[in-house]
Each structure stands twice: as C-alpha cells, then as structure tokens.
What does this fold into?
Amino acid sequence: MNIIELRDTITNSDDTEWQRVGRMGPTYRDRFDPWSGPGDKTGVDIETHSSVAVYKPDIDLTIVYGMSAPGAPKEPSFKWATFPDPAVSIHLADVFWRGSLVDRVDFVYVDGGRCILPIGEGHQGLRITRYEYAVARLLDS
It folds into this structure.
C-alpha cells in the first residue's frame, strides 16, 4: 500500500470499520521530551496518545490519537470556536502502517472536549482536505 491508497482507504471508510481500543491503559505510542534546569536538574516529560483505532479489514492500519500537538499554544483562540464551552486544544492523530508512523493529522477538541474537528492550513485553520475531514470524523464517532 502506498500513501495515496492509505489516505483513500481512510477517507472512504466509515466508523463501523474501525475497532476502538479503550481509553484506559497505555497505547504504547509515547513522546519523550528531555529537559534540564538550573544546576544539575534534569528530567523527562512523557506524553502518550489516549486512544487507538484499528481498521478491521486490515489491522496493519491503525490511528492513534489524543497527544497534544508539540509547539501548539496551550489555549488557542479561533474566531469560529463559538461553543458553550470556549475551551479548544490542538492534538495529533498519528497514522501507522505495519507499526511505522506514515502520516500525521492535526485536529482540535472543541467545546471542552465534546467534539473533534479538523484543523487545517490557512487563516484560522479553515482550509482542510477531504482526508483531514475524514480522519476527524472517524475520531469523533
């Protein structure tokens, strides 16, 4: 499978074709950020994805998601985010094929985490692709 076929597979799939692995417990897809401070203080911050979706017709294809996007503002503000709960946060969906990271899509939790929406390019992240929309739709279902 090449990247175009992989994106087409995700875009044309529906949520019934994906098996969700529960939100509790490790996903084994972690990010390690070493840091150092004054004196000899050092440490490692660990962040992990919270959820996994496995494509039932071919379990070589998985999407893990929930980790915050590195470098994203802690409390981003978008003019279009006019929900009852104003909290918005930017996160990652990592696409794996046979255990290898092959693609990444940014998305936002809006309305205090009640909904997942795609975030794309351009002004206020409003220019999205059909693929980015499909990934967010699958994650939100």
